[in-house]
Design goal:
This protein is an alpha/beta fold. The chain has ten helices and twelve strands. Helix 1 (29-40) packs antiparallel against helix 7 and helix 8 (280-298) runs parallel beside helix 10.
């Protein structure tokens, strides 16, 4: 493991294999929270301290994602970020948006609100759980405005080749909306392959709820404006003599209409120190090794593996289907093995490995799966 389990809260005596749903909290986050409390008590000076922390945190995010911090905003959720793009663009009847059938709902549902404007939502189906670039390309035409995908799937664990996807999408002059929630913090992410990128922080980034990353590619999409405004949207607070006169901020902070989730940002700032100190290349290598062990160990059991075998086509999630999901989840839970279960009644199990996991964790999972009652090993 890259970070000892003892550095986290709640990992004593358990095998935690569900960072793809919720990662455990670092014990050092307590000091970050205490610092937030101390800073908040400073009266007017508190906002200066909070802004300093947010600025420092954006610099760390920029280093992780390979982009300037001025192109980053902190928003409340990734869902908010997708909606910022959906409602910030100027649409024409006949435009279309391309999504995938196994995509996270927040990357699909916002576009459905555009149907009354004459915008078509095109859904690319998976083939044996795999989304191919060929199928995506077939869905594109000269009226495609946005392709909205995740670089690592929450549902199948598939990892898309983002450079090739970016080149394909941009060759048609469409925009690429990338959800890196299951990539940032576990594999390298080059944000400027996309026009908009979002990432939740409570999973692989070892943070918590209340803050998400929003990247705006200002070079490719300079005209994007926030669909809603607040006191923070302008370069300064309007004068009371002319309360409607303001100048929109030039950076991505124009999308931060009001106060951002400072307490969550203090936590994220601390989490990024750990991730950057280890290095994303080392984290990727560690996770690919462990997730490879999971894949090989599950192969041949009475489960339907959904995640590709090749390391370049996966990250930290290994997903499988089973008709006995409730029984298997209960079996693992009794043995203090935590994985992530189904959505909407679908029998999908997701096993996620991260920096605090070891080969012993994987072995415990695989031994428990081998010991399943014979009735649960039949498909």
């Amino acid at each position: 493991m890259l970070i000892p389990k003892t550095d986290f809260i709640g990992l004593e005596g358990v095998t935690h294999l569900c960072a793809g749903g919720e990662s455990p909290m670092l014990k050092s986050h307590r000091a970050a929270i205490e610092q937030f409390f101390a800073d908040k008590a400073l009266g007017e000076g508190s906002r200066h301290r909070m802004d300093e922390t947010a600025c420092r945190c954006k610099q760390k995010v920029g280093k992780l994602l390979g982009v300037p911090p001025d192109n980053l905003a902190f928003i409340s959720t990734s869902s908010e970020g997708i909606n910022l793009l959906a409602h910030g663009l100027k649409w024409r009847s006949g435009d279309n948006v391309v999504v995938c059938d196994v995509e996270f709902p927040s990357d699909v549902l916002p576009w459905t609100r555009l149907k009354e404007q004459g915008v078509e939502v095109r859904v690319v189906p998976n083939q044996n759980w795999i989304i191919s670039l060929t199928d995506l390309e077939r869905a594109l035409d000269d009226r495609t405005r946005v392709v909205a995908v995740s670089d690592v799937s929450y549902f199948t664990g598939q990892r898309l080749p983002m450079k090739e996807l970016s080149e394909m999408v941009h060759s048609t002059n469409a925009l690429l909306s990338m959800d890196s929630t299951h990539a940032a913090g576990v594999i390298p992410v080059q944000a400027d392959y996309a026009d908009i990128l979002v990432a939740s922080c409570y999973k692989w980034l070892l943070g918590t709820h209340g803050v998400a990353i929003f990247y705006w590619n200002r070079e490719r999409l300079p005209e994007l404006e926030p669909p809603f405004l607040g006191w923070h949207s302008g370069e300064s607070i309007p004068d009371w003599h002319e309360p409607t006169v303001f100048t929109l901020r030039s950076g991505a902070d124009r999308f931060e209409a009001g106060n951002i989730g400072f307490i969550s940002i203090y936590i994220l700032d601390n989490a990024l120190d750990h991730i950057l100190r280890i290095g994303i290349a080392a984290i990727e290598s560690h996770v690919l090794h462990l997730s490879g062990m999971v894949w090989e160990g599950l192969h041949g059991l009475a489960v339907e593996l959904m995640t590709p075998r090749e390391p370049s086509r996966r990250a930290g999630n290994i997903c499988f289907m089973t008709p006995h999901i409730n029984e298997i989840m209960a079996w693992l839970s009794e043995r203090k093995i935590r994985v992530w279960g189904a959505y909407a009644g679908v029998g999908r199990v997701r096993v996620s490995t991260h920096v605090y996991n070891s080969t012993q964790d994987v072995e415990r999972l695989l031994n428990a799966m081998e010991d399943l009652p014979a009735s649960l090993k039949r498909s």
